[in-house]
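Changelog note: in this version the structure field was regenerated for every chain. One regenerated record is shown below for reference.
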Amino acid sequence: MKNRLARVCEVLKRELGILATRDLDFHGDLVTISTVDITPDLKQAHVYVSALGSAGAGRRALEAFEKNRLHFQTEISRRVQIKHTPHLHFHLDESIERGTRVIGIMEELGLLDESKK
């Protein structure tokens, strides 16, 4: 059963990425679907979105996804054959931004070995 959930998550991630690229404009910001987690009953999907670029890119990306939630759910129901079309919940994934900030601090403190850059 866990393998099935993992496969469904990967399919949703791929399809949402295609839809986002095709249907949304992020004005030069780099926006990706980093992870999709789905409940075992396949009724709820938590979609984690990461954004790099101008200030407020993550907030704007999340707003764009929220605004187009019904469109994405409709497209998912057409493209993915599963018993229930999951309700999409969008969340901002700040792990990339956090990692970049930590690396910057480590560089400032001289803690990074030059060969690892």
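Spot check on this record: The chain is about 50% helix and 20% strand. The mean pLDDT is 88.
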